[in-house]
Design brief:
This protein has 1 helix and 6 strands. By secondary structure, it is mainly β. A 6-stranded antiparallel beta barrel has the order 1-2-3-6-5-4.
Length: 116
C-alpha cells in the first residue's frame, strides 16, 4: 500500500505560494528543421511558478560546486529542467541543478540551483 502525498503536495504548494513569490521560467528548445532556410527554429515557452529564494551558506559552498552568486529556489511541484532560465531581481539565472523532493516518486516540491 502506498501513501497518498496529495495532502503534503497541497500543503507545500500553499506554503510556497504564501511565503514565496511568482517567477516566470523560460525554456528554449530547438524547433523543426526548415529545409527552405536550412536552419532549425527555436521555440521559447514561458511558465509561471511560485518559489522561495535562498542564499547558500559558506558551508554549502565549501566543496566548490556552488558559487557565491548561486541561489537556491524552493519551488512548487512542476516540470523543471536544467537550462531553464528565470529572472531574479534584474538578473537572469539559469537552472543548473534540479533536485526533486519526491518520496515514493510523487514530486512534492523541488530545489533548484540557479546561476547567473
Amino acid at each position: 500500500m502506498s501513501y497518498d502525498y496529495t495532502g503534503i503536495t497541497n500543503s507545500a504548494t500553499n506554503l510556497i505560494t504564501r511565503f514565496g513569490k511568482s517567477y516566470t521560467f523560460t525554456r528554449t528548445t530547438n524547433g523543426g528543421y526548415n529545409p527552405a532556410t536550412g536552419t532549425a527554429g527555436v521555440v521559447t515557452t514561458d511558465f509561471t511558478k511560485y518559489a522561495c529564494v535562498f542564499n547558500y551558506t559558506d558551508q554549502d559552498r565549501a566543496d566548490g560546486t556552488i558559487l557565491a552568486s548561486d541561489r537556491r529556489m524552493l519551488v512548487e511541484s512542476g516540470d523543471y529542467q536544467v537550462g531553464d532560465t528565470v529572472v531574479l531581481g534584474s538578473d537572469v539565472y539559469q537552472v543548473i541543478n534540479v533536485s526533486p523532493i519526491a518520496p515514493s516518486g510523487d514530486v512534492v516540491a523541488a530545489n533548484l540551483q540557479v546561476r547567473k
